């Protein structure tokens, strides 16, 4: 299955005396084989931006989570299966995937502690969803069922291609980062889309940065934190072909570099 085209994208160089930012990447527990893993595309994207990716195995041990956060400068919350609706006090719909309670527990601990410590945090797809739930937000469990007038958000491959557009909210960090792209495309920036759930009620502290062309929230940030941002699409799948999506990941790495000695 083709996710994106691999290209020769050289890592951002650092001076010999500089330490590379260490980016902790959330993993999944592959129960059938008792493995902890993350898709290689996240690792390649972080490496291409001049940071050291570090995989963080799933755990419910708060002391281990604390050790993770001491070892890394920033956290990438990756995509994956549905968040358990129990986290936002709802019964699961028939269309919602079976819960992975160990994963939910792990990410809730990791996100809440990272934000409390003002670590840089960037969420992708499931990442934006569980980050929203950690701070009291809710989700549409199934877009086709609950929002029948919305378009299809679960795209067909190739997954590195745009599927729909988003409009960027002015005065937000994403508007500043994508200023040239917004002017070029008249504020209709193409993104991919691999999800059937979406943000409904925003969690405490979050502000929208982008909306889909059918008015779903597609990006958020916390203005009171150094860098807490998340997007609903998958920039890691687009970044080697569309520079604006590499900008997103590079901006996250740059924030980690600026903040790592603070």
TrEMBL record:
Q: Which InterPro entries match?
A: Class_I_gatase-like, Peptidase_C26, PuuD-like
Cellular component per GO?
A: cytosol
- Listed GO molecular functions? hydrolase activity, acting on carbon-nitrogen (but not peptide) bonds, in linear amides
One Pfam family linked to the record: Peptidase_C26
- Output the superkingdom of the source species: Bacteria
Protein name per Swiss-Prot or TrEMBL:
Peptidase C26
- UniProt source species: Fannyhessea vaginae DSM 15829
């Amino acid at each position: 299955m083709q996710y994106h085209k691999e290209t020769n994208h050289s890592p951002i160089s650092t001076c010999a005396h500089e330490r590379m930012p260490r980016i902790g990447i959330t993993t999944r527990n592959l129960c059938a084989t008792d493995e902890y893993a993350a898709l290689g595309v996240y690792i390649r994207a972080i490496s291409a931006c001049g940071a050291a990716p570090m995989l963080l195995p799933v755990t419910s041990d708060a002391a281990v989570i604390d050790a993770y956060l001491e070892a890394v400068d920033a956290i990438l919350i990756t995509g994956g299966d549905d968040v358990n609706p129990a986290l936002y006090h709802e019964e699961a719909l028939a269309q919602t995937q079976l819960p992975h309670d160990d994963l939910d527990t792990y990410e809730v601990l990791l996100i809440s502690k990272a934000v409390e410590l003002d670590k840089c945090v960037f969420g992708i797809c499931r990442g934006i969803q569980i980050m929203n739930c950690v701070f009291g937000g809710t989700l549409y469990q199934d877009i086709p069922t609950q929002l029948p007038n919305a378009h299809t958000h679960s795209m067909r491959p190739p997954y590195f291609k745009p599927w729909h557009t988003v409009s960027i909210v002015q005065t937000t960090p994403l508007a500043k980062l994508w200023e040239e792209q917004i002017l070029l495309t008249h504020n209709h920036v193409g993104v991919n889309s691999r999800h059937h759930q979406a943000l409904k009620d925003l969690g405490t502290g979050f502000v929208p940065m982008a909306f889909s062309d059918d008015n779903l929230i597609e990006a958020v940030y916390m203005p009171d934190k150094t860098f807490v941002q998340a997007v609903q699409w998958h920039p890691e799948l687009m970044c080697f072909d569309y520079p604006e999506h590499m900008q997103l990941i590079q901006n996250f790495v740059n924030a980690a570099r600026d903040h790592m000695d603070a």
